[in-house]
Amino acid sequence: MTESLPGGARGAPLSMRAAAVVASTVVRAARQLFIDLERGRHIDPTALRNAMEAAFGAADSSGAWNWKTAYDACEAATVLFLRRYGAAMRTKAASPGTMLPLLARIASLLPTHTRRSEESEALQQFSTPIGLAFVASVAAAITPADVVLEPSAGTGLLAILAELAGASLILNEFADGRAGILRQLFSAVSITQFDAAHINDHLDASVVPSAVLMNPPFSAAVHVDRKMADAAIRHIASALARLGEGGRLVVVTGANLSPDNQIWTESFKRLQEHGRVVFSAAIDGAVYAKHGTNIDTRLTVIDRVPADDIASFPPSPGIASDLSTLLAWVIQYVPPRHPLAGKLKAMVPAIASPCRTVRAYAGQGLPAASPAIDVVATEVAYEPVDWAPTGANQISDALYEAYTLQSIRIPGAQAHPTKLVQSAAMASVAPPKPSYRPHMPANVIAEGTLSDAQLESIIYAGEAHSEFLSGSWTVDATFDVVAATRDNAENAVRFRRGWFLGDGTGAGKGRQVAGILLDNWLKGRRRAIWISKSDKLIEDAQRDWSALGMERLLVTPLSRNRTNADFGGGTARCPHDCCLCDQAAW
Questions:
Q1: Do 551 and 223 contact (CB within 8 A), yes or no?
Q2: What is the rounded CA–CA span in Å between residue 196 and residue 364?
Q3: What is the pLDDT of residue 231?
Q4: CA–CA separation, 293 vs 246, rounded Å?
Q5: pLDDT tens sequence across 213-253
Q6: 303, β-bridge pairs
Q7: Radius of gyration of the chain (CA)
Q8: DSSP for 310-332, written as a single string
Q9: Where are the beta strands (DSSP E) in 166-228?
Q10: Is 328 exposed, middle or buried (0-12, 13-18, 19+ CB in 10 A)?
Q11: Which of 65, 155, 284, 438 would disulfide-bridge 75, Cβ 3.0–4.6 Å?
Q12: Residue 334 belongs to what H/E stretch?
C-alpha cells in the first residue's frame, strides 16, 4: 500500500521550518517507542499508532502523518536504544557472534513494514536492518580513529553502529524528512542533503573519510522518473572516489550487482582502477522481510588500494541464508584493513546555517520533468580592443605561438590554467570584434570556473547563433532535401549560423560546450541536444555541466526518454546512433 502526505514526493516541498517540526515530532514518538523497547514490549500496529497519535495530536487519516513516517519513528527508537545500551551490549556479548542475537531480539520487537509512501518508492527508501548493519560494521572494522561517511544515511541505523565504535561521522541524506530526523538524533554531526550518487562532487574538498558504510538506492535516481539499473554503481563509484587512500567501503546492494554477473563485470573492472574488491556475498531476501521486501541483497567490501589485476575478483562464498552465516563469512574471508595514507577530516557541525543542497539549483518534486533552476544570471561584461598584428621579429621558429585574447578584454576573468597556443598563421589574422553579451552566474567568472579563453568561445558562439546564413530555403517533409528559393517564397526558411569549436586537448571543450548551453539556459532556452561519440561520455558531460553550478542529472541520455515523449526542459546527451526524436518534442 502506498500513502502520500501534503508536501510529499509529489506535492509541494515542506519549508525548512515545517520539515524540522515534523522531524522533531517523529523523534518525540520515537522516545515513547524507546520506552517499549527498554521494557522488552512488542511494538504492534496499535502501540505504534498510539505513539504517533500522541506525538502528532492527530490520526493518520488527518494527513498529519503516514505509516512510513511511523516506521521511521521505530527506526529512530532503535537508534536511541543502541545509543543508550549499545556499549553495554557489546561488553556483554564479547564477540560479534554473540552480539548478533541481541540485535535480532531488538528487531523482533518492531513491526513489519507493510505500507510505503510515494517518496519512499521514488527514492527506494529501504533502511538497513539493524542486524545487517552490524555485519556491515564488522566488515568495515571500524575503530575510534576512523572518519566514517554514510552517503545515504536514512534514519541512522548504519551510523549508530559506527558511532558505537567511536568513529567520527559524515552523514548525508537527500530526503528532507529523514535528514530532519538525523539532525535530531545526531545533533553533533553536520548533515548534508546532496544527491549521494555524486557525493564526491559536492562534499567539501577537505573532507576525507577513512571508511564508508552505504546502502544506496538499487535502481532509483533523483529527478529521474524511471528505474536506472546503474544507480547503485554510480553511488559506489562516487563514494569510492571520496574515500581516503587505504580506506574501506562496505556497501549493501541488490544481489545481482556482482563482479561475477557479466552485466556488471566491466563496471567492477572500472571500480578496481581505484580500489580492490576483497569480498562479495549474496544474502537471502528473508533478511529484509521486516523492512517490507524480500529482495535478495549483497554485501560487498572494497578497499581503496590498487588492484593487482582489475579483471581479478575474489570468489564469492555463495548466498548467505541468514545473518549468522554472513557474519561467519565476513570474519573468515574479509582481510584486515590496510594502513591509511594522509590526514583524515570530518565535517564541522554547522551552526545556524542551512546545509548546502543541490535543491538550491533543482526543484525538489519527484519525479521532475523540468526541475526549476535557481541561478542568478549576470551579463558578462567585456571591452573590445584594437588588434595589433604580431611583428615578424616577435614570431619564433616554433610551429605554435602563445595564445591570448586579441579582440576583447574580460575584466575579472582568469587566465586559462594551462598554456594555450595557436599557429603562427592564426596569430597573424585579426579576429572579429563581437557584440554579443552572454549571461553566466557571477561566481563562474570570479572563481575561474571558465577561463578568459573559454568565455571568449562562448561569446563568439553566441555571436554566430544570433545571426542567420544568407539566403532562403525550402525543405521537404523529411528535412533531407534543401533547395534555394526567394526570400518571399511560401514556406521559405532561413538557417541560423553555426559555430565550429576546433580547440585541441587541454582547452576544456566540454566545459565550453556546457557554458554555451548555460548561456542559452539563462536566456530561457531550456532544451538542447548534446551529441557525443558514444554513451561512455555521459559522465564527462554531466561533470562539465555540474561544474558550472547546475544539477548534473539535467544532462540525461536521450535513450532514457520514452519514444515520442515530451522531453521537457533539460539537455539530452546522445551518441550518434541515438540521435532520433519526435519533432513535436523539440
A1: yes
A2: 15
A3: 86
A4: 35
A5: 999 987 666 666 667 788 899 999 999 999 999 999 999 99
A6: 248, 276
A7: 28
A8: TT--PPP--EESSHHHHHHHHHH
A9: 168-172, 191-192, 211-214
A10: middle
A11: 155
A12: none
